[in-house]
Amino acid sequence: MKTHAQVVVIGGGVMGVSLIYHLTQLGWKDVVLVEKNELTAGSTWHAAGLCTHYAHNITIMNLRAHSVKLYQSILEEETGQAVSFHACGALRVTRYQDRLDEFRQVQGIGAFAGFDFHILTPAELQEIYPLARVDDLIGAIYEPLDGHVDPSQATHAMAKGARNRGAEIYRQTRVTGIRQKADRDWLVATDRGEISAQHIVNAAGTWCREIGVMMGVDLPVVPMLHQYIVSDRIDAFAGLDHELPMIRDPDESWYLRMERDGVIIGPYEKQGKPWSIDGVPPEFGMELLDPDIDAIAEIAGHAMERVPAAADGGIKNIVNGPITFTPDANPLIGPAFDLDNAWLLTGSSMGVMEGGGAGKFLAEWMDAGEPPMDALAVDSRRFGGYADRDFRVDKAVECFAAQFGIHYPYEERPAGRKQKVTPGYELLKRHGAVFGSVYGFERPNWYSRDPDITASSLSFRRANWFEPVGVECNNLQQNVGLGDLSAFSKFRVSGKDAFRFIDQLGANCAPSPGRIGLTHALTASGGVHSEFSVTSLGENEFYLASAAAAGRQDEDLLRSRARAFEVSVENITDHRGVFGIMGPNAEAMLQQVADHDLSIEAFPWLSARPIRIAGISVDALRVSYVGEAGFELHHDITQQKTLLEHLLKAGEQYNLGFYGAFAMNSMRLEKGYRAWGADLTTERTPLEAGLGYLVKTDARDFIGCEAMLERAQADNHWCMELLEFDAPEFDPFYLHTVFRGNEAIGMVTSGSFGHRLQKTIGLAYFRNQVAPADELTVEILGRKAATRIRAPL
Ligand SMILES: Cc1cc2nc3c(=O)[nH]c(=O)nc-3n(C[C@H](O)[C@H](O)[C@H](O)COP(=O)(O)OP(=O)(O)OC[C@H]3O[C@@H](n4cnc5c(N)ncnc54)[C@H](O)[C@@H]3O)c2cc1C
Question: Which atom of ligand 1 is nearest to the CA of 176?
Fold first, then answer.
């Protein structure tokens, strides 16, 4: 066994093996994988092997698409090893309009990503799947590129490819401990000796929490038990001259596919069972759990009602095994938080369909130091320290039940709530706040004026919050609104080099003392990694606020870049609260209770002052994300409730209302302000995002600058435009394709109704320039609507 390697991958399931296959493809030489048992001995060997393209996110759709490509042809051609890929296609059927809306949304994403999905009528479905009952259905989505694979064969073929390029795989080698040495290399202890490595990767599937503890990370995952039934021979299927597509009824929560001359039926129960929450027994290996037919009988019965022939075979076998679930059912891919050269490739509940692509994605990330596509949906750091035991269990159980749930825009699922409740929460709730959860924080989404309505309705069309959000926007425009912005990630950067550090952090210069700036920290290839609003509190001290969901990514970035400077970085997110006071009355209202002259002359735009509001110290920032004059009041969170009470009192004579995240989204779109995570991602540069006014390149040197400038000169660069849509029926939300004629040339990244403009609006990226005179259409839920470029408010 080697004692040194460039990388040690822990876990020989489909994910880990895919990684070494792709790393060696990229030319990594010294690649080692250790597996405590045999390859595939975790969840991989008993998976049903279904592979799909269906996803609500482009990155995940691409991961899945790459898996299919790999299993369908690439692997077998390269290694000569069969993987038994059945390109049978897939169907999802429905009885409900909302589900059909979801199908159309996924079809729209596919149109842009380059994957064909087809919406079928029941009659068309019947032709493709004659054994299904279709009388009560309203439609289906057909995914012709899908198929199923033998997960063991696919893993072994990838292992062969990796070994052919020099990777070494040590089977029957258990990792027993991991530590980082003083030179920052990792030391991986196994029951067969130690290996030191520059990089380690946790691909331990069901056991990833245990390996995480050895690495020093607490992973928010829970194994959940999933079962499928394998039938005996069924004449109706055995007699077919071709394999029928896999079929799913997401409304009833099952999948069914042909398996030799019978079928496999896989139900997802509403009450899933977590398993070994506090530690998977180390001796657990290739065994399965005892079948529990009672748990799945009812749903399996529904499958047999839909495909009556499936009831004709007896049960040959029931497979019951653990699947790892994260709080949002997406995998954990990327750097482990706060560790150097330690990576995660785990937490996938659909590791076969995602594994091929996920291995490629992480290999490219490790090789280039940045992800090949927007990683937000899979980034291993998207959950913070709030994801404790109860949270991970509640969310895993919820995700299992919602495996086939409809993914509504703006949906807030109920489990794992109130991880972080600010002191103002109860008071805001009394004023009608309807909260959403962002990075564990309860943040008001909108304010209900009807005491009987305390939650958002779910729809792909206008929901119950449409009118109230309009009221919030209008009151803010005419009077003044208070918004709770406390969920921002917040950092204090201080020390001798603080100015130099901030000045080199991103595309914009460091602000001078008392001033505020917005800077984008870039990846090496010029994409937007982070967006920081930076306030200079003095020569050597800066206060940074960034997106709530970016907490760990931003902390990692700041800490790693700070190493070359004499600065300290402190994450103060949970210690500071933020209220926005916005609107034409904001200044007068605050002046009643402030100890400082708030006039524009004394307190100019983009400046910050430490002031007192009703005796409470706050850092007041004259900034606005909503396009009306106002202030942000950043305060000690322990003072929040008292501050809020004073603000509400002071606002009485100024018609103070509230605004939530939905109103803020609508208003920032009217101004054309970009949102991190939706409009700003690592895929596009700030110049492509139209943020040239925030990019200062003269005599400056910052990471990604050169690449950003080069990309601006390239023929195929992107540009972002604000659009106005003739779409009275549907407001855009995210990921809608824009066409010029029949050519898909753009993608809406965020959208809303603009209540001040009384127009439906959205931001979209276009490949190359579009001209204002171009005739454009946008496709939302399968319907095309005219759209045009417009100027911001
Ligand atoms: C019944 C069932 C049906 C499924 N059907 C599908 C499907 O149709 N499609 C789909 O995409 N997914 C399906 N899945 C999910 C899929 O099986 C998993 O998502 C996938 O196999 C996970 O792969 P992995 O490589 O992450 O983990 P694993 O396959 O669990 O691999 C992890 C490996 O790490 C090794 N390991 C653990 N600890 C150590 C240690 N200390 N030292 C060394 N090695 C260690 C283990 O032995 C194991 O081999 C199904 C799962 C179940 C249970």
Answer: 41
The atom of ligand 1 lying closest to the CA of 320 is 1
How far does Cα 439 stand from its chain's mean position? 12
Give the ligand 1 atom nearest the CA of 205: 27
Strands 718-725 and 736-740: unpaired
Could you read off the pLDDT of 26-83 as tens digits, one per residue?
A: 999 999 999 999 999 999 999 999 999 999 999 999 999 999 999 999 999 999 999 9
User: Which of 106, 748, 43 lies closest to 331 in space, CA to CA?
Assistant: 43
Identify whether the C-beta of residue 480 lies closer than 8 Å to the C-beta of residue 583: yes
Nearest to 506 by CA among 538, 536, 540, 532: 532
579 closest CA partner among 655, 677, 660, 503: 660
- Beta carbons of 207 and 15 less than 8 angstroms apart: no
List pLDDT tens digits, range 295-347: 999 999 999 999 999 999 999 999 999 999 999 999 999 999 999 999 999 99
* C-alpha separations of 294 from 227, 397, 539 in Å: 11, 18, 68
CA 262 to centroid of ligand 1, rounded, Å: 25
Expressed in angstroms and rounded, the spacing between residue 107 Cα and the centre of ligand 1 is 29
Is 285's pLDDT higher than 90? no
CA–centroid distance, residue 355 to ligand 1 (Å): 10
Q: What spacing in Å lies between the alpha carbon of 80 and ligand 1's midpoint?
A: 24
Q: In the structure, what pLDDT confidence band is assigned to residue 1 with cuts at 50, 70 and 90? A: very high
Which atom of ligand 1 is closest in space to residue 322's alpha carbon?
A: 53
- Residue 772's pLDDT band, with cuts at 50, 70 and 90, is confident
Which ligand 1 atom lies nearest to the CA of residue 40? 49
The 3-state DSSP class for residue 559 equals helix
Q: Whose CA is nearest to atom 27 of ligand 1?
A: 205
DSSP 607-662: BEEEEEETTEEEEEE---SSSS-EEEEEEEGGGHHHHHHHHHHHHGGGTEEE--HH
Distance 282 CA to ligand 1 centre (A): 15
The pLDDT tens digits for 201-228 are 999 999 999 999 999 999 999 999 999 9
H helices, E strands: number in the chain: 19, 38
Hey, which of 14, 43, 170 would you mutate to test ligand 1's pocket, going by the most ligand atoms within 8 Å of its Cβ? 43
CA 240 to chain centre: 41
Q: What are the pLDDT digits (tens) for 430-459?
A: 999 999 999 999 999 999 999 999 999 999
What is the pLDDT confidence band of residue 557, given thresholds at 50, 70 and 90? very high
CB atoms within 10 A of CB 279: 10
Closest CA to ligand 1's atom 12: 350
Report the C-alpha gap between 357 and 328 in whole angstroms. 19
SS3 state of residue 764? strand
**Distance from residue 3's CA to the centre of ligand 1 (Å):** 27
- Of 200, 323, 332, 400, which is best to mutate to test ligand 1, by the most ligand atoms within 8 angstroms of its C-beta? 323
- DSSP 8-state class, residue 550: G
Interval between CA 334 and ligand 1 midpoint (Å): 18
Cα gap 790→234, rounded to integer Å: 60
266 CA from centroid of ligand 1 (Å): 17
The predicted model scores a pTM of 0.97
Q: What residues line ligand 1, using a CB cutoff of 6 Å?
A: 10-16, 34-37, 41-44, 46-50, 174-175, 203-207, 211, 226, 228, 319, 321-323, 346, 348-353
Q: Fill in the amino acid letter for 364.
A: E
Do 511 and 537 form a contact (C-beta atoms < 8 A)?
A: no
pLDDT at 770: 86
Q: What is the mean pLDDT of the chain?
A: 96
Distance 322 CA to ligand 1 centre (A): 8
